[in-house]
Amino acid sequence: MGAVPGRGILRLAATAGPVATAGSPLFDVEPLRRVTTRLARARAVATPTLVLGSTQPEQTVRRDALARQGVAAARRRGGGGAVYLAPGAQLWVDVWLPRRDPLWVDDVVAAAEWVGAWWAEALRRAGVVGLEVHAGRASAETLEGLVCFAGRGPGEVFHRGRKVVGLSQWRAREGALFSSCAYRHWDPAPLAELLEVADDPGQRLDELLRPVAVGLADLEPPVTDLASVEARLLGSLADFALP
Question: How buried is 187 (Cβ within 10 angstroms: 0-12 exposed, 13-18 middle, 19+ buried)?
Answer without folding.
Answer: middle
